[in-house]
Design brief:
The protein has six helices and five strands. It has 135 residues and is α+β, with helices and mostly antiparallel strands. The chain has one domain: CBS-domain, CATH 3.10.580.10. Strands 1-2-3 form a three-stranded mixed beta sheet. Strands 4-5 form a two-stranded antiparallel sheet. Strand 4 and strand 5 form a beta hairpin. The longest helix has 13 residues. It is globular, with a radius of gyration of 16 Å. The two termini are 14 Å apart. The model has no long low-confidence stretch (mean pLDDT 93).
Length: 135
């Protein structure tokens, strides 16, 4: 693939996420997620030495609904993934795709200068990335 055909994570990332606190109840955070039509929740760091967390719909299904736990009582920190693998916006989507495959992930925060600027999903890479490569 030539340099002119290179597609970066920045070109395919999206803003479909919400930021929540680890102390939020799952029910409360889920309502924010649904209202924003978001694909995931980014769990805020407690301080500058902490790491971001991530909650997907599947976490709610597997860790709250399946075991019949109360979404009003379960806190986000109990079901989140942390730390999470992140990617930088200048990364070639081929490498992001390889990272996703190697670590069996479907979503990654896009981090620039220590701050999340978006998220990228396997669907973004497949639909937007491949679309740009074929154009």
């Amino acid at each position: 693939m030539s340099e002119k055909n290179m597609v970066t994570v920045r070109e395919v990332m999206n803003q479909r996420y919400v930021r929540v606190s680890g102390m939020d109840a799952v029910a409360e955070a889920f309502l924010q997620m649904r209202e924003a039509d978001a694909r995931c929740m980014i769990v805020e760091r407690r301080d500058e030495n902490d790491e971001y967390g991530l909650v997907l719909h599947t976490d709610i299904v597997r860790k709250v609904i399946g075991p019949d736990r109360s979404p009003d009582r379960v806190r986000i920190y109990e079901i989140m993934s942390k730390p999470v693998l992140s990617v930088h916006p200048g990364m070639n989507i081929r490498y992001a795709s390889r990272l996703f495959e190697r670590f069996r992930i479907r979503v990654a925060p896009v981090v620039e200068a220590g701050e999340i600027i978006g998220i990228v999903t396997d669907l973004d890479i497949a639909t937007l990335g491949l679309g740009q490569l074929l154009a």
